[in-house]
Write a structure and sequence with these properties.
With 474 residues, the chain is an alpha+beta fold. The protein contains 15 helices and 15 strands. The chain has three domains: 285 residues, no CATH class; 114 residues, no CATH class; 58 residues, Arc Repressor Mutant, subunit A. It has an eight-stranded mixed beta sheet. A three-stranded antiparallel beta sheet has the order 4-3-14, with no helix packed on it. It starts with a strand and ends with a helix. 35% of the residues are buried.
Length: 474
């Protein structure tokens, strides 16, 4: 932009989907009344001793393996010291020089082009609490204190808001497919800090970076990157200098502002955590975790195109959300034709399940229900149009498709004798339209089909109607 190049690195914080917190037995759940999911350990009372959650370690390693990271056989815990109201101990138990996961690589696609981002490290730490600002008063909720938090640090390999969003989308997919997190950004399960600098293109030197903290949606990440890029260019163009600082993004105002000067590692006075033993991971344990990684998005796309002969477009749409991919797999396993199942999911399930502004798709139907709908359409019991009414009726319920068809009276009329009798009456009553057809205007068949559907309240099988219509008109 204007002869400048943007360079971006990310620090992504992902809350892990464990049942309990990282160093205590408090429930790891979202919501609840403030300060009701706390104990002496996670609220930082003196004299308490932390105990590591093994599942949090396994989940971090699992995510690291899915991102092609090197896994450390030996890692340790450190205290990151800073004073802030949402951190009751005045330090955060984290990892500094010996994290669980080292160098890795994540590949993603943007506008048909393959790209990649290097992972610098992934470490495990505890989340802080939450400040609630209301009516000029700030309160502290410690429910989130001690929730296991995985921090994924990238190299500065991104150069635009579009690249960042495409990468985050791929990363979110990896985290969801591996099952380590529910990645619900609206609940704070996934948030990112954006380190960004601009410099003259081709200069070979990076500019001074700023860090925008706690972006909790894709849209806010996009808007803040565009804002900060333009702001830095304007400062440089006017002869000013960029100050290394930590910034905050106000999504309502659509602008960022300075919070404080950027801290360096020495500002946190890291030192080894004396209350926790190091983590030792034998290769056998790492391989056991690797074996637990399920089929990821790229592998499913390859299987759908190679084994099920789906078009690449279908495969990419079906795998964008794990729940949709699971529904497709289970429906095909139940006996459905892959292409017909794909078409119905893309047109009808996504129509109902994806609402504007929502992060995830709601899947309100199981594989058996969907397979039954497809079977009822396939054998002519109901029409494709009627199947939408059935879908609406059984959505988010355990009703069967067959029960719904009976209840709604949607069964198609396949009686060729009855349909032929109705057609003859319509043909006899419309000699001019018949003459148009015999003069070569075959489009008028739609008129006759429409009249039959009107007479039978939409319950005649269109295939039977069209076959009989062609025979009678000729």
């Amino acid at each position: 932009m204007n002869g400048y190049e943007t360079t971006i690195g990310l620090e992504i914080h992902c809350e892990l989907k464990t049942e309990s917190k990282i160093f205590c037995s408090c429930a790891n759940v979202f919501g609840g009344e403030p300060n009701t999911h706390c104990c002496p350990v996670c609220s930082g009372l003196p004299g308490v001793m932390p105990v590591i959650n093994k599942k949090a370690v396994e989940y971090t390693v699992k995510a690291g393996l899915a991102m092609n990271c090197e896994i450390s056989e030996y890692s340790k815990w450190d205290r990151k010291n800073y004073f802030y109201p949402d951190l009751p101990k005045a330090w955060q138990t984290s990892q500094y020089d010996l994290p669980l996961c080292g160098k890795g690589l994540v590949e993603y696609e943007l506008n048909g082009e393959k790209k990649s981002v290097r992972i610098n490290r992934i470490h495990l730490e505890e989340d802080a609490g939450k400040l609630i600002h209301e009516g000029g008063i700030t309160r502290v909720d410690y429910n989130r204190c001690g929730v296991p938090l995985m921090e994924i640090v990238t190299e500065p390999d991104l150069h635009s808001a579009d690249e960042v969003l495409a990468f985050l989308d791929e990363l979110k997919s990896i985290l969801k497919y591996t099952g380590v997190s529910d990645v619900k950004m609206q609940e704070g399960s996934l948030r990112c800090d954006v380190n960004l600098s601009v410099a003259k293109a081709g200069g070979g030197k990076l500019g001074t970076r700023t860090e925008t903290k706690n972006l909790n949606s894709f849209s806010s990440a996009r808007r803040s990157i565009i804002f900060e890029t333009n702001r830095q260019i304007e400062v440089l163009e006017s002869g000013g200098e960029i100050r290394q600082e930590t910034r905050r993004w106000d999504d309502n105002k659509g602008e960022g502002y300075s919070m404080r000067g950027k801290e360096d590692a020495h500002d946190y006075r890291y030192f080894p955590e004396p209350d926790l033993m190091p983590v030792v991971l034998p290769k056998s344990e790492v391989e056991k975790i690797r074996a637990s990684i399920p089929e990821l998005k790229g592998e499913r796309i390859a299987r759908y195109t190679d084994e099920l002969s789906l078009p690449p477009y279908d495969a990419k749409i079906l795998t964008q959300d794990k729940e949709i991919a699971d529904l497709f797999d289970e429906t095909v396993k139940a006996g459905a034709n892959p292409k017909k199942a794909s078409n119905y999911i893309m047109s009808e399930i996504l129509r109902k399940g994806k609402t504007e502004g929502a992060e995830d798709v709601v899947v309100g139907i199981n594989a058996k229900q969907l397979n039954d709908i497809l079977s009822l359409v396939g054998d002519g019991t109901i029409s494709l149009v009627a199947s939408k009414q059935v879908l609406d009726d059984i959505w988010l319920s355990d009703k069967s498709a067959k029960e719904s068809v009976e209840k709604l009276g949607l069964k198609q009329n396949n009686d060729s004798g009855e349909i032929e009798s109705i057609l003859r009456g319509i043909i006899d009553a419309n000699p001019k339209v018949v003459a148009d057809y015999r003069a070569g205007n075959e489009k008028v068949t739609a008129f006759f089909v429409g009249q039959v559907m009107k007479a039978t309240k939409g319950k005649s099988n269109p295939k039977v109607v069209n076959e009989l219509l062609v025979k009678l008109l000729k």
